[in-house]
Amino acid sequence: MNYGKTKEVLNQLVADLSQMSAVIHQTHWYMRGPEFLSLHPLMDDYMDEINDQLDVISERLITLDGSPYSTLKEWAEHTGIQDEVGSWDRTIPERMEILVKNYRYLADLYQKGIDVAGEEGDDSTQDIFTGFKTDVEKKIWMLQAKLGKAPSIDA
């Protein structure tokens, strides 16, 4: 089988997960405030999880005879996650809001992947997408709780 749409979503995720790792890294470096000591190491965990997803997604794309984006230029040209120059002006809650927005984007993209992999009969990739969407929704819940809000994973 061709799995053309599934491969497109996989490669979109390669660009977006690469960008998300950079956004989390920026959050990690550019935070200040009373919660720094607890949130700074937590961002390491978030980066590790995103990088693990990136590796699985890239390897699945290769398994399907695809070619993952592998340069900064390709990632920048294809990502749907906004790039922003680092600044000390953002508060920790503002940084958490940015993460929530980007995790919501990833959850939507994983849902698109679930749908297209299902249409193309790729149960294995659909399973990967489903598991990672669940992980991303958990991050949304946790970050929203940190912000004093309901998870609103369908927002």
Question: Can you walk me through this structure?
Answer:
This protein is an all-alpha fold. The protein has a single domain, classed as Up-down Bundle (Ferritin). It has 5 helices and no strands. α1 packs antiparallel against α2, α1 packs across α3 and α4 (92-119) packs antiparallel against α5 (123-146). The mean pLDDT is 95.
Task: Give keywords.
155 residues, Ferritin, 5 helices, 73% helix, globular
The profile of the biggest β sheet is: none
Helical segment count? 5
CATH topology-level fold name: Ferritin
The CATH superfamily is identified as Ferritin, core subunit, four-helix bundle
| pLDDT < 50 runs, ≥5 residues | none
Would you identify the CATH architecture? Up-down Bundle
Return the domain count.
Answer: 1
Brief description of this entry?
The chain is mostly helical and 155 residues long. The protein has a single domain (4-146), classed as Ferritin, core subunit, four-helix bundle (Ferritin), CATH 1.20.1260.
Can you lay out the helices and strands and say which pair or pack?
Blueprint: H1 4-29, H2 36-63, H3 72-78, H4 92-119, H5 123-146
